[in-house]
Design a protein that fits this description.
mainly alpha, MetI-like fold
Length: 308
């Protein structure tokens, strides 16, 4: 297992190089001049040229990228063109807000989706099954930004129960967490149902039933554990995506997370901030996937044996 973890961590190196290369070059092709954006419309040509020299914007793109990667080798993600602060400091000052929102969103999704998926599979074609699939279809189809706006209108504007946005306490987490959790719950519900349906049709489930094992024990002890691999996979993917920044939801609720920071950096053509943020996203996503693989080994000992 340790060798497998080390191997996966080493695979982060080409991932970081590939991601940084693509993002840095794509940002260089986008229209706009960072110096003009920073200085404003009233800036003179001399001031813009001076800013170009200070930031090294007149150098060829390959030289600028090489200079950025050289700093990355020393753990430096560069400084933001807009604020002048370290990108690492900027991102990780917002990381707790994004992590908090991600945790509560996934908790809501898991608590709702897994029981519904299990019940839906064990009562296939029943009213509960049909209702849960309609819920899942709606959850996948409804855009997060629209659902967020509807929740704000209903619970903040009309009823006045919850704040409209910001990160000011426990109450401010409820609406954005429900907004994100709904879409995640829909995906997890569908995956849980399909995985459970496949497992409960296996021979060992029929054998357990023929031995007189109670239905609850068959489902909880035998079927659920064998159906968890796809479920854990989709949970890991959803968690990694949310850690990367739920851009639209954070924007709708003015959530001070990484997603909103990334949007502002793109609008300001802040290449260092965008590249550094995406690199951190890629590392977080890879680490979450690694954690999911490790969890596989605890769920199924046969998978753990393959890691040895």
């Amino acid at each position: 297992m340790i060798k497998y973890v080390i191997k996966r961590l080493l695979m982060l190196i080409p991932v970081i190089i590939g991601v940084s290369f693509l993002v840095y070059f794509i940002m260089s092709l986008t229209p706009g001049d960072p110096a003009k954006i920073m200085l404003g419309d009233t800036a003179t040509v001399e001031e813009i040229q001076q800013m170009h020299e200070e930031l090294g914007l007149d150098d060829p793109i390959i030289i600028r990228y090489g200079r950025y990667m050289l700093g990355l080798l020393h753990g430096d993600l560069g400084n933001s063109y807009t604020t002048g602060r370290s990108v690492f400091t900027e991102v990780f000052s917002r990381f707790p807000a994004t992590l908090t929102l991600t945790f509560w969103s996934m908790l809501i999704a898991i608590v709702i989706s897994i029981p519904i998926g299990i019940i839906s599979a064990t009562k296939q074609y029943s009213f509960i099954d049909s209702f849960s699939m309609i819920f899942a279809l709606l959850g996948i189809s409804i855009p997060n930004f629209w659902l967020g706006l509807m929740l704000i209108i209903a619970f903040s504007v009309n009823l006045g129960w919850l704040p409209t946005g910001g990160f000011s306490g426990a109450a401010s987490i409820i609406l954005p967490a429900i907004t994100l959790g709904t879409g995640c719950a829909a995906n997890i519900t569908r995956t849980t149902r399909s995985s459970m349906l496949e497992v409960i049709r296996q021979d060992f489930i029929r054998t357990a039933k023929s031995k007189g094992v109670s239905k609850r024990k068959v489902i909880n002890k035998h079927a659920l554990r064998n159906a968890l691999i796809p479920v854990v996979t989709i949970i890991g993917l959803q968690f990694g995506q949310l850690l990367g920044g739920a851009v639209l939801t954070e924007t709708v609720f003015s959530w001070p997370g990484i997603g909103q920071y990334l949007v502002n950096s793109i609008n300001g053509k802040d290449t260092n901030a965008v590249t550094g943020s995406i690199i951190i996203f890629a590392v977080c996503f890879s680490l979450v996937n690694l954690l999911v693989d490790v969890v596989y080994g605890f769920i199924d000992p046969r998978i753990k044996a393959e890691y040895q």
